[in-house]
UniProtKB/TrEMBL annotation:
Binding site for (6S)-NADPHX: 62-66, 123-129, 151, 248, 296, 342, 410
Record keyword Signal present: no
Known catalytic reactions: (6R)-NADHX = (6S)-NADHX; (6S)-NADHX + ADP = AMP + phosphate + NADH + H(+); (6S)-NADPHX + ADP = AMP + phosphate + NADPH + H(+); (6R)-NADPHX = (6S)-NADPHX
Record EC number: 4.2.1.136, 5.1.99.6
Name of the protein in its database record: Bifunctional NAD(P)H-hydrate repair enzyme
Residues annotated for AMP binding in this entry: 379-383, 409
Domain (YjeF C-terminal) ranges: 213-464
Binding-site list for K(+): 63, 119, 154
Cofactor binding note from Swiss-Prot or TrEMBL: Binds 1 potassium ion per subunit.
Keywords (A to Z) from UniProt: ATP-binding, Isomerase, Lyase, Metal-binding, Multifunctional enzyme, NAD, NADP, Nucleotide-binding, Potassium
Secretion signal span: none
Cofactor: K(+); Mg(2+)
Amino acid sequence: MRTAYSVETVRAAERELMARLPEGALMQRAAAGLAAVCAGLLRRRRGRVYGARVVLLVGPGDNGGDALYAGARLARRGAAVTAVPMDPERMHAGGLAALRAAGGRAAGTLPQRADLVVDGLLGIGGRGGLRPAAAALVERIPPGVPVVAVDLPSGVDADTGEVAGPAVTAEVTVTFGAYKPGLLIDPGASRAGALHLVDIGLELPEPEVEALQHADVAGLLPEPTASSDKYRRGVVGIVAGSAQYPGAAVLAVAGALRGGAGAVRYVGPAADSVLARHPETLIGPGRVQAWVIGPGLGEGRAGEVADLLAQDTAVLVDADGLRGLDPAVLRARTAPTLLTPHAGEAAALLGVSRESVEAGRLAAVRRLAERYGAAVLLKGSTTLVASAGGRPVRVNPTGTPWLATAGSGDVLSGLAGSLLAGGLSGADAGAVGAYLHGLAARRTGGPLLAQQVAEALPAAWRDATHP
Ligand SMILES: NC(=O)C1=CN([C@@H]2O[C@H](COP(=O)(O)OP(=O)(O)OC[C@H]3O[C@@H](n4cnc5c(N)ncnc54)[C@H](OP(=O)(O)O)[C@@H]3O)[C@@H](O)[C@H]2O)[C@@H](O)CC1
Ligand SMILES: [K+]
């Protein structure tokens, strides 16, 4: 599991550790890790550190201090290191002295030729959009030069991944002590590049955000045993499709058939299309362990959603099924409930604009889970899964922009519903479903069709369970 911690939590752990260590020890650990990553990048790019031109963008706080001490280490290995301050009056004094003693220098303007830029403008002390002096430096980073961000790319909000105005786009981010949520959640995540965690010895409590890895998924996936027949492996019921959108039913069933359930039942007007593509499907009402309702349903079917929610059975509600949901009804349920909105649907459920959901995805998914008392999977460039009760929000690490394609959400809802039928909780079914869905899309690559994602799911399942 990759875990991420809020600034408040990191600061508290840092205070506790600092009290037990000599002054400056943590910054030295951070700078050593940062310098090692920079040296590795320079060796890969140009064979050696000696003679490399390194530019440090130096902010007024300790983030700038990390950059200066790391710059000193690189200068001692023969790099030509230039520090460019955001504010010449405010630079970490000890770091600047160390850089000068190692042969580095400070300059007022950003050199146009460089092999590496180190972004030490702002770390976890950054607040709001970059002020003009910082924004001006970021805009002058020469194109094509790799940037290593110190702790996080300047301009990215550490707690949320929000980006207000200009921000650094890094090739690598070297982060200290713990991942920050903003490194795992877009738009911040796509600014951070490859992540490198430097252990500085912090002792941390339960994380605010976590990302599953292969081993976590393997541990959660239901594997049939010798004694499991199709009913024990769970039956998932799909209520989807309409005369206008029969394809959504076909795709939801395609996902459900590959999610490990023993059988898939279809209820709705697209039975002929479903059977033509998936002759394995059971048709018509009957007993199930989980229902999926919503994909391609069209308008005017809220009564069917209400009927399913009144049953003591796990339910996944997607797409058109999400219209006009009553929080009180959902909160009263005891069986697992999973809602799978995209940003527009989430906005309607919260009564806010789509833009505000996109800009603050973490807050939005948490509020949805609390308001509806359900697990909520918020689809998007980084899919998030929250559950009611303050558990860590799960960030899906396997997504790819190619998944933004028609029908891909229908496959996901069927897949996650199948996992619910297999006995996973709402949050686990959502997180594991999103993980496999992303892996399947990555395997398919390039411009993809939703049905190809469904077809690649068994291979994705094997990748996660037998890497
Ligand atoms: N945690 C750990 O264990 C360890 C942490 N370490 C390092 O310390 C870093 C945190 O250092 P930090 O607290 O000094 O804050 P930092 O990020 O340098 O920024 C504060 C400065 O920025 C300014 N400023 C704020 N917003 C701004 C904006 N939008 N645009 C422009 N300026 C803005 C703000 O100005 P002010 O508001 O005071 O006027 C203040 O001067 C952390 O990220 C990591 O790198 C490691 O060394 C060791 C272990
Ligand atoms: K930074």
